[in-house]
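ok so i was messing around last nite and threw this chain in just to see what happens. nothing serious, just curious
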Amino acid sequence: MIQQKESVVTPERFNSGLTYDEYIGRIQRNREKFDYNHRETVLSDDDVAAFRRLVAQAGGPARALALGEDWCPDVFRGLPVIARIADAAGMELRVFPRDDNLDIMSEFLNRGESQSIPTLVFYTSDHRYIAHWIERPEKANAEMGEVMKRYEGLDRSKPEDVAKLREIANEFQTGPIWASWREETVRELRALLEEKCG
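result:
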């Protein structure tokens, strides 16, 4: 997707965004899940060095904008990953709640249709668009069907099924599948930025 010539994300608008810590301080839901995924995201020394090199080079991804909402599992899994990357690389990260910034979201719709989150947009230090990344890694998309099969046949109107749904979600969100999706998010973001920034 080619970014519109006149973006609503001006340098001033970018600067008005929240830091990750400010965003976390304002969320109403899932704080423990954001904190868990932030704590569990581990970057290799090689990844840290690669992201630092990318940010430091002329035309590198010095700035990142993230759109998200605290109720979304992809956000409380993925946004902490980009926060870790930004912190390690010296990248300036600004977070915008999607529902309060639909004009930004409309520039970066998933396949030109869906308001998928998180959406990450990378810019140079002088605010030139580099690339964007949407929602979750391809590995997660490929594995999502198998994960969703565990929820089949459960009825949200039955208390015993609600308890089972929570148990499955907690196991899934703290287990090896999500851990691998965090790792794959790091890999995809690094590959995207290396491709776009050389």
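not much to say yet. Residues 176-197 form the longest helix (22 residues).
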